[in-house]
Batch of 2 targets.
Target 1
Amino acid sequence: MMSSKLKTFSLTIMGLIFPAVSFAIVSSSAASTIYEIIARVYKFLLMISIPIAVIIILWAAYTFLTSSGESEKINQAKKILMWAIIGLIIVILSNGIVSVLGDLLEVKVPIVE
């Protein structure tokens, strides 16, 4: 039997991922170039990664609040939070990073809206 925490976590993940999948699938035309395919995959991953980062930040907060003063759990929560924030910053800045790399390598980079 599935525990209530696992059931709640699973439902939260499904609630966040399924709308992103449906928005990524709905398209008025098929991708014709490799650049369009890459742009669509990037947009899909962006829509999934931000909610996942928020969930990981909430997990770090939960770990911190339930640590009961244990320094090992507090340090674990700090590490989780630090890496989640670093990942979120990379995701947010990724479009700019891709544009700069495209300019440096003189490669056509599709703009992701």
Target 2
Amino acid sequence: MFSYGQFHDGAFDGLLIHDKTVYVFVSTDQKEHFVLIATGVVAMIANGMQAGNIILDVERWTAEELTLRDIRDVYGYQPSPMTMGRESCTGESPENGAINPHYQSFVWR
């Protein structure tokens, strides 16, 4: 996993979805503006995201680092007690990411 520390205490400024591309507008606490671009997005969850939310962290990880639980979380799957393992898995996408504002989450695959 790679963490983008410069966005800690920055702000989530907005989100644009076009086909399978997601544009995430963020800024640092020094008011430097950036656009994070995720292409080939097949699933996404953005709970409670609002412009101006303070960012706790922005993370990116490879498909090899992704777990089945991570995928279940994005798809909203509620596992039974028999399927709650944290097995590693590989996916079609080479990179996955998350933006974790205080109390909210935005995850793409």
